[in-house]
Amino acid sequence: MLKNYASLKKEATLKANVLEVKKYSEGKYILTVQFLNSDGSTLAEGPCCGVTDGGSTDKFEYKVKKIDGVFKVITAPWHIP
């Protein structure tokens, strides 16, 4: 479901670990995920990308909604500026 947001490159392959799933409404969930680099290491981003404590993060939250039996991401894609 998140592969649509991995990259603007068509050949990109997204790998991620879903760490937590929280239901917040009927058919809607918040997923906490970690993205993996091609070598299997966890991808981390610094304070440029919304981290408020000045550190880096390797966990990202996405809201998903079940639409016609398929879960779809309904939040903006993660972006490296």
Describe the structure using short key phrases:
single chain; 81 residues; mainly beta; four-stranded antiparallel sheet; 4 strands; 0% helix
Question: In words, what does this structure look like?
Answer:
The structure is a single chain. With 81 residues, the protein is mostly beta strands. The chain has one domain. It is globular, with a radius of gyration of 13 Å. The two termini are 22 Å apart.
Sequence-ordered SSE layout with sheet pairings:
Layout: E1 16-25, E2 28-35, E3 60-67, E4 70-73
Antiparallel strand pairs: 1-2, 2-3, 3-4
Count of discrete alpha- or pi-helical segments spanning 4 or more residues: 0
Unreliable runs, pLDDT <50, ≥5 residues?
Answer: 4-9
N-C termini distance: 22 Å
The helix fraction, in percent, is: under 10%
Strand order of the largest sheet: 1-2-3-4
Gyration radius (Cα, Å) is: 13 Å
Total count of domains: 1
- From N to C, what is the helix and strand string? EEEE
Strand content: 35-45%
**Class inferred from helices and paired strands:** mainly beta
Shape: globular
Number of strands: 4
Mean pLDDT: 78
Describe the biggest sheet? 4 strands, antiparallel
